[in-house]
Write a structure and sequence with these properties.
The chain is α/β, with parallel strands linked by helices. 27% of the residues lie in helices and 22% in strands.
């Protein structure tokens, strides 16, 4: 994927949450700060460990609903939630601070800059749940998942690491599968479901973090969930 031109990247914003995020010294990073510690993110967590803990990264984390629960349930691992919205990221940071979570960071950043944020093989598990499908033909160029972008992701996920993608949009799912087919030299597909909960006895009873906030609504409306799991070769 061609990198955005410099004048389209991170610029000062009048959003009040931009200032709040910029004032932080730990717990959350915004804009170019998210590219300042490439390869050294494990050192930026309040959690200190003698071993090398797994690093899990959720792209498009919204208000951190899933990432917050993951990090609380698995204090031995490290988690980073990434979203583009200033307010969502700041509110997620506040929730993590209130819970006293030392293994969780939040980024306000562009997912398309993933290879600028992380070093080669730095991530163990990567997640992208229900990205904007940009359904109109004129907007297809805005879709996150492309062959080129999956190659970027392959750089930062370690060999044997996992990338899990979910979408409720059938058209985007087909688009994703075509993109995945372009990078078969880098990723092995271990799951390719077009109706993830087809055999589940009571999917409406699933709760966060088993499902996302949006996913619960899709399940309630009987919208099939497409799920793809990729393993880095």
């Amino acid at each position: 994927m061609t990198q955005p031109q410099e004048d389209h990247l991170y610029r000062p914003s009048q959003n009040i949450y931009y200032a709040k995020l910029m004032a932080l010294t730990e717990g959350a990073f915004t804009d170019k700060q998210t590219e300042a510690h490439k390869g050294k993110w494990r050192d930026k967590f309040a959690l200190k460990s003698l071993h090398k803990p797994e690093l899990h990264v959720e792209l498009g984390c919204n208000g951190g609903h899933v990432t917050l629960e993951w990090s609380q349930d698995h204090p031995e691992h490290l988690y980073i939630g990434i979203d583009w919205k200033f307010k969502q990221v700041y509110k997620a940071y506040e929730k993590a601070k209130k819970r006293g979570l030392k293994n969780l960071l939040f980024f306000r950043a562009l997912s398309e800059r993933i290879d600028q944020m992380f070093a080669d093989g730095e991530i163990d598990y990567l997640y992208l749940y229900f990205p904007d499908p940009w359904p109109k033909k004129a907007h297809l160029k805005n879709r996150t998942v492309t062959g080129d972008w999956l190659r970027q992701c392959a750089k930062v996920v370690r060999s044997g690491g996992v990338f899990h993608i979910k979408t409720d949009h059938a058209g985007y799912a087909d688009w994703m599968r075509a993109a995945i087919a372009e990078v078969g030299d880098l990723w092995t597909v271990t799951e390719n479901e077009s109706d993830l909960y087809r055999s589940h006895p009571e999917p409406t009873k699933l709760r966060i973090p088993q499902v996302t906030l949006f996913e619960r609504l899709f399940i309630k409306d009987k919208i099939p969930i497409h799920s793809m799991k990729l393993v880095r070769k």
